[in-house]
Amino acid sequence: MPQYSLINSKMLSIKLHGEEVYAKRGSMIAYTGQVDFAPSSSGSEGLGGRAMRSVTGEQMSLMSARGTGEVLYAFYGLHVTLIQLSEETFFAESESLLAYDGRLRSGTQFMGSGGMQGMLRGAATGSGLFTTTLEGAGELAIVSDGDSFALDVTHERPIFVDPQAYIGHRGQLQSNIVTDVGWKSFVGQSSGESYQLKFTGLGTVYIQAAERGGNR
């Protein structure tokens, strides 16, 4: 299996022994050995996943790497967090996904209840409410503006997250889109009606200490 390790907080090393990994296009900064690279628009998902992405606009621009050697990845100096999956599903905001094993099955899922109304809210706010799912056993790496922060969700303590600070989540969680009128205008970041993601259940939500900007 691929061997993931951090060179430092902003650089990822993946050692390959004939396996395949997918990474954000433009994130490979160096490699050694016999490794073949190829562009990929869908990663390890099938026709259904590709069709879902075309409808939702939750696109990923990926590059596959296969062979024997070591590949180094980094992206705009963002911090890297490694996550190990053991026959479970990780939900990732697509912009925050740096790399993942070809062993993991990828797909797309809507974040939040509310049916078509909720989907229209997400489209109207540009909040990235369609997420990439990675399922199975393997490793993945996410990037964040500064160190990522893991928030534990319990049945007694739901978590409310700004969609622009959301990176991903795992566990037995349910997500809903909720409205809070003026909560950001109160702190001077925006005005009017704002939407948040409410997580309930048992699991972990990963966030970054900055809103997603237009610099990448």
Work out the number of β strands.
12
Whole-number average pLDDT?
A: 82
Poorly predicted ranges: 47-58, 114-128
The CATH class turns out to be Alpha Beta
What's the shape? elongated
- Helix and strand sequence: EEEHEEEEHEEEEHE
Q: Indicate the structural class.
A: mainly beta
Please, what is the CATH homologous superfamily?
Mitochondrial biogenesis AIM24
In short:
This protein is mainly β.
Describe the structure.
The protein has 216 residues and is mainly β. It has one domain: 4-Layer Sandwich (Double-stranded beta-helix), CATH 3.60.160. The protein has 3 helices and 12 strands, in the order βββαββββαββββαβ. Strands 1, 2, 3, 4, 5, 6, 7, 8, 9, 10, 11 and 12 form a 12-stranded antiparallel β-sheet that branches. Strand 1 and strand 2 form a beta hairpin. The longest helix is centred in the middle third of the chain and has 11 residues. The protein is elongated.
What's the helix and strand layout?
Elements: E1 3-8, E2 11-24, E3 28-40, H1 47-56, E4 62-73, E5 79-92, E6 97-101, E7 105-110, H2 115-125, E8 130-144, E9 149-153, E10 159-161, E11 166-181, H3 183-187, E12 193-207
Keywords:
216 residues, mainly beta, Double-stranded beta-helix, twelve-stranded antiparallel beta sheet
